[in-house]
């Protein structure tokens, strides 16, 4: 029985083995403050990858890679059908924690081990993936591995990206091939049956709602802009207020107007942040001649994002300031059938869950273009993320892995 | 007749000689953009000083220096009376112009030359001074020379000040002594009869009023503060607005409140500037954890400045942000009798003038503690200052020197 196997797999999730694996992987790039600093394809990351490859081999999985050094760990299926995929990334922010990305990969590994322990064979293959350079810290942009998996043409451009030492992604990929010369290449000959990414929430909503599992229905769209306001530098003591052209006075007025229009358009789902400020000449006794600030606006509704674009253009035109678009991504709606499987898995385990929209980007944002996809979140204590203090209760980590196992086995076994 | 001599001296101001001297001095530290970069006591500044010393010697003046390398160029008087002093500084901002400071010194020199040309002997000596390090660019604080002249005890602390290369003022003063080993030391055995500083306005008021001369009645008081606002760094995409502690949101709210209270207290004379901003971590997609901004508040009324201090303390306490006092100076009221002499000189020349409060600091701020002092301003084109584009019409430069000559001779000859 499929459903029985799904429950059986969930029941074979070994809590201590899962939690130990988190601690073991965190040793690769461990920071003194308890966090992790593991740049993509660095020697530290290659050490972490060797650990994963060795463990997968011990679990009887085949291990393959691709042009962007993504790692695919496959548990064979009974039939020659497209795989069900799960996974995340193991690179971190410079001041990252132990869970962001790594938890999703290690929970996938724990599912592989649970299948073995329970003696379960699934109809479809189950493939755990570690995507390369999700954080975008060493090489820009982020999510290189997952986006290049979905659109292999991207790899040519990505290859020329350089890190802060001038090392290209191409060189880093060559070093990766040298480190693992025996790895076979995975050919993308078919789309996967489904992709599920398990991740920490990186926000406070599940904790505030006191709910241990989040069924992620999509990812917010985002707009990144830079607004440049020009003034005229002048002496703070000698220039009367009415004769000033203070770029900072202009910038805070424009910021306030943009904030208001963001709320008006977006309501409760609005996320608006003015995070980076550059002031020229940035002197106590000189009126600012130029202030540039960034906008990070996110919303799950594409109509709201477009309206924001239009009204922002009107706003900057009214104030005669300059607008530069830095980045844009449309909202992602995950596949209703896969969302439902995730929700069903939570229910089957008797675990409370709620629908949630992801505020952060994830590899699943790109996988959603390849195959039916969804995500599962566990709570982040205090909503803290990209920080050595990032943490999730052990019970939540284990419950997330159980729900993932249930969902993956169900998907692996469902009728084509 | 005293008044005749004052008019005669004014009439002997040689426009082309004055304007040429401005261009000649500007060659010491000339910038490619037409501005001047002449750090205090640098080899460039010592070159400029040598030019002044040679010119003063050619004019028959005695040249002396003191512990802070101020240079005193004295035209002897007929009687053994305290001198009338005039002058300013010849160090500049890194992106300075040709006039700030230098104009006041060179106009003083032109007065000395006019006395010679007209064959005028005054009752009191006339002393032109070049004060050391007014700008405070190479060594902090500014106005070292004039403040140490007034309070010689300051030189011990000033001596330890270091420039950005780690060179102490003491070392720079030693280099100055080596460059001019024959200069005698001026002893401050008596207070001067009066001090007048001629300077460019560095603001737009005279130009806006279309008046060529400003009779400066005092210098605004100033408060410099830094306000530090703390928040909590969090992900711009995952953190709902109601769960944020955005240091920038707090900072712009506190800034707005401070601006309002400054206007309420200070009325039209208010000068309030928030010029320097530091944002942590200053990242597009991270909510700011800390924002520090500076306040430069100036007003001619000490009561207003004190009220500002109190209400600012209440404001930061209400918002639980941190306040650090960086610098403070009380308003300076110049001596009514000297102000009147300056106004009389303008009237005697038939030149329109208006009373004005200085928004910038000047050496006269310190000299006012030593002897009856005042200042005379000429217009700054567009109010531009501390900028290679700094400029004043030739007619205004010449008129300012004529008014200075009239005023100095009148003061030199007035009854004890």
From TrEMBL, chains A, B:
The keyword Hydrolase applies. InterPro entries: Amidase_Cbmase, Bact_exopeptidase_dim_dom, Peptidase_M20, Peptidase_M20_dimer. Pfam families: M20_dimer, Peptidase_M20. It is an enzyme of class 3 (hydrolase). Signal peptide: none annotated. Gene3D superfamilies: 3.30.70.360, Zn peptidases. The keyword Hydrolase applies. Keywords: Hydrolase. Its EC number is 3.5.1.6, 3.5.1.87. Residues 218-320 form the Peptidase M20 dimerisation domain. One of its GO terms (molecular function) is beta-ureidopropionase activity. Belongs to the peptidase M20 family. PANTHER family: ALLANTOATE AMIDOHYDROLASE, ALLANTOATE DEIMINASE-RELATED. This is N-carbamoyl-L-amino-acid hydrolase. The lineage of its organism: Bacteria, Pseudomonadati, Pseudomonadota, Betaproteobacteria, Burkholderiales.
């Amino acid at each position: 029985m499929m459903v029985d196997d799904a429950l059986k797999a969930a029941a074979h999730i070994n809590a201590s083995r899962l939690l130990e694996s988190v601690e073991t992987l965190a040793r690769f790039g461990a920071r003194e403050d308890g966090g992790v600093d593991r740049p993509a394809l660095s020697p530290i990351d290659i050490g972490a990858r060797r650990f994963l490859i060795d463990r997968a081999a011990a679990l009887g999985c085949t291990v393959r890679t691709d042009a962007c050094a993504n790692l695919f760990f496959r548990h064979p299926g009974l039939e020659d059908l497209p795989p069900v995929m799960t996974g995340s990334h193991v690179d971190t922010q410079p001041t990252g924690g132990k869970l962001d990305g790594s938890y999703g990969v290690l929970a996938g590994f724990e599912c592989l081990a649970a299948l073995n322990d329970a003696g379960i064979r699934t109809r479809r293959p189950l493939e755990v993936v570690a995507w390369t350079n999700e954080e975008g810290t060493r090489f820009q942009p982020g999510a290189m591995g997952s986006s290049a998996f979905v659109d292999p043409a991207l790899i040519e451009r990505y290859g020329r990206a350089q890190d802060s030492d001038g090392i290209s992604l191409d060189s880093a990929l060559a070093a990766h091939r040298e480190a693992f010369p025996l790895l076979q290449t995975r050919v993308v000959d078919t789309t996967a049956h489904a992709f599920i990414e398990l991740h920490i929430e990186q926000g406070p909503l599940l904790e505030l709602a006191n709910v241990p599992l989040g069924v992620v229905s999509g990812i917010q769209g985002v707009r990144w802009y830079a607004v440049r306001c020009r003034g005229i530098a002048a002496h703070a003591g000698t220039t009367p207020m009415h004769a000033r052209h203070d770029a900072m006075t202009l910038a805070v007025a424009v910021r306030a107007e943009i904030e208001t229009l963001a709320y008006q358009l977006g309501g409760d789902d609005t996320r608006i942040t003015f995070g980076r400020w550059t002031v020229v000449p940035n002197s106590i006794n000189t009126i600012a001649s130029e202030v540039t600030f960034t906008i990070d606006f996110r919303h799950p509704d594409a109509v709201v994002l477009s309206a924001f674009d239009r009204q922002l253009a009107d706003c900057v035109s009214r104030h005669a300031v300059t607008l530069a678009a830095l980045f844009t991504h449309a909202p992602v709606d995950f596949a209703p059938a896969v969302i439902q499987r995730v929700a069903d898995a939570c229910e089957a385990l008797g675990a409370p869950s709620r629908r949630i929209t992801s505020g952060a980007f994830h590899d699943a944002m790109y996988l959603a273009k390849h195959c039916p996809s969804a995500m599962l979140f566990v709570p982040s204590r205090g909503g803290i993320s990209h920080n050595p203090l990032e943490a999730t209760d052990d019970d939540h980590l284990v419950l997330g892995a159980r729900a993932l196992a249930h969902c993956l086995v169900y998907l692996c076994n469902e009728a084509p």
